[in-house]
Specification:
20 helices, 499 residues, alpha/beta, 4-stranded antiparallel β-sheet
Length: 499
């Protein structure tokens, strides 16, 4: 039984734009002046929400959904200009670096080569070890920060190999070996703590500015964590691993209309029985931390809490997996206890069973609807607006989908005709904006539209194509791309439909 029912959202709208996609002179979006300008833009057009993708540190593949920590932040987002103002960097040090030559695209290889070198200069110029705010930050976050900083220092020491390939004594975290390693790598450990201090300080400053301007932040948290993460290295007993710490089963989703072989994500599966014994202490710590970072938490792949797809770790595709019962209401109650007044959005796309629907209803969490997917099948498609309950969040599409412009270029003639008839338009090129208007006028309490779709961009601006590696997570907004004309158009539709 779920003990707490979440109150519905007020009617409103927001825009999905990853921090990484903000304009910047330094290769990737940051918590700098362009982030503040984006908040000003949101306020000026009457929006209530800014949805971001996970803010955690990334690893191989550059996905924010497979980071090296469920608690740490991505050091790439630290604003270098703020460090210049603080006297920790010189402008010429930052300007002399090649951050990539395409303002539309993130060059992750360039960032990996250069960003930490610049941050290390700031680290060595800093007196952070004597600052009360820094010491307080380290103390308040010691429950994850110490392990994460040592993990990252060790990862660099061992040439970025995954922790399973580290020396056995360190991989198994033998106590004396870990003490010796910490002593050996103390300066590197301090560097990673410094990065987190700057990340959190700058983010909280930006979040306060957003909140003061009536904008609430929707943060996205993956249900799973990456195997090559501090979380699994430290808390190996909370995951389905064998005696040598290798995964027995991994996460994914079965074959569907998007993939004949399904999606083999590779994240280790939780040992839910072990987690339940301490009332999901690790999950509660994670939710409490995210409740500080965000105003609303969107749990990605929420259905995995009720039933999850488990794939043998030696499988080459997701075809060999099976559905297994998850912790359900027990974890929901633990999440609610930790979340306090922070609201939850459930990403319930995929295999929505009757139990998933029941838990959503009992918890009060709004699920998601995608207008992009509304025109498949008949009138019982739950993505069609006349089938909505008001307690839902409607999207045109998500970061995993094609942009609206190109999605409707690639559909059948019959689907296009159905969409145009439904939207009461005469030309196919009108579909993307008509989709946005349809979402805004719907009964759904909350509407979230990707920035790319407001701009009418094609798939060159797509954020991610699931089950592919390379070329994802790279799109960037250019300075000046948001015009006064577009601002006026968004402001008008927001006011027209009471958002």
């Amino acid at each position: 039984m779920i003990k707490k029912v979440q109150e519905p959202f007020e009617r409103g709208a927001g825009i999905l734009l990853p921090v990484s996609s903000l304009p910047s002179d330094y290769g990737i979006g940051t918590f700098g002046k362009e982030a503040y300008r984006f908040v000003d833009f949101l306020r000026s057009v009457g929006q209530k929400y800014w949805q971001v993708l996970p803010l955690g540190p990334i690893s191989y593949g550059d996905s924010p959904y497979a980071g090296t920590s469920a608690f740490a932040g991505n050091p790439y987002y630290i604003d270098l200009e703020e460090l210049i103002i603080e006297g920790l960097l010189q402008l010429d040090q930052v300007k002399s670096v090649d951050w990539g030559n395409d303002p539309n695209t993130i060059d992750y290889s360039a960032l990996y080569r250069e960003r930490f070198n610049i941050l290390k200069i700031a680290f060595h110029n800093s007196q952070h070890n004597t600052e009360k705010d820094y010491l307080d930050f380290c103390k308040e976050n010691s429950f994850w920060l110490d392990d994460y900083a040592l993990f990252m220092a060790a990862k660099r020491q061992f040439n970025d190999k995954e922790w399973l390939r580290w020396p056995k004594e360190i991989m198994l975290r033998e106590p004396q070996t870990i003490k010796d390693l910490l002593k050996e790598l103390q300066e590197q450990v301090d560097f990673w703590k410094f990065c987190q201090y700057k990340f959190y300080s700058q983010w909280f400053k930006l979040k306060k500015y957003a909140n003061d301007n009536g904008i609430r932040i929707i943060g996205d948290i993956p249900i799973y964590v990456a195997f090559d993460s501090a979380d699994v290295w430290v808390n190996h007993d909370l995951f389905d691993l064998d005696e040598m710490r290798r995964p027995r089963h991994v996460a994914g989703v079965p074959p569907d209309m998007f993939s004949e072989t399904g999606q083999l994500w590779g994240n280790p599966i939780y040992d839910w029985g072990k987690m339940e014994k301490d009332n999901f202490k690790w999950w509660q710590a994670r939710i409490r931390n995210n409740a500080k970072l965000y105003d609303v938490i969107r749990i990605d792949h929420f259905i995995g809490i009720v039933n999850y797809y488990s794939i043998p770790a030696n499988s080459h595709t997701a075809k060999t997996g099976e559905w297994v019962m998850g912790p359900g209401e027990k974890l929901i109650n633990a999440i609610n206890e930790a979340a306090g007044d922070i609201k939850i959005i459930a990403e319930d796309l995929g295999n929505v069973t009757p139990k998933v629907r029941r838990i959503l209803k009992e918890s009060g969490y709004p699920g998601m609807r995608l207008l992009q997917m509304a025109f498949f099948g008949g009138s019982d498609n739950e993505n069609l607006p006349f089938n909505y309950d008001s307690n839902c969040v409607v999207y045109g599409g998500t970061h995993d989908n094609e942009t609206l412009k190109d999605f409707f270029k690639n559909q059948s003639r019959e689907l296009i005709k159905y969409a145009m008839d439904f939207l009461n338009i005469k030309r196919r090129r009108q579909i993307p904006w008509a989709i946005i208007a349809c979402a805004y006028q719907s009964v759904a309490d909350t509407v979230i539209i990707q920035m790319q779709d407001f701009l009418g961009l094609d798939n060159s601006a797509r954020i991610n194509t699931p089950s592919t590696i390379g070329g994802n997570w790279t799109w960037r907004l250019e300075k000046g791309q948001i015009t006064k004309k577009l601002e006026s158009k968004i402001r008008k539709i927001t006011k027209l439909y009471g958002r």
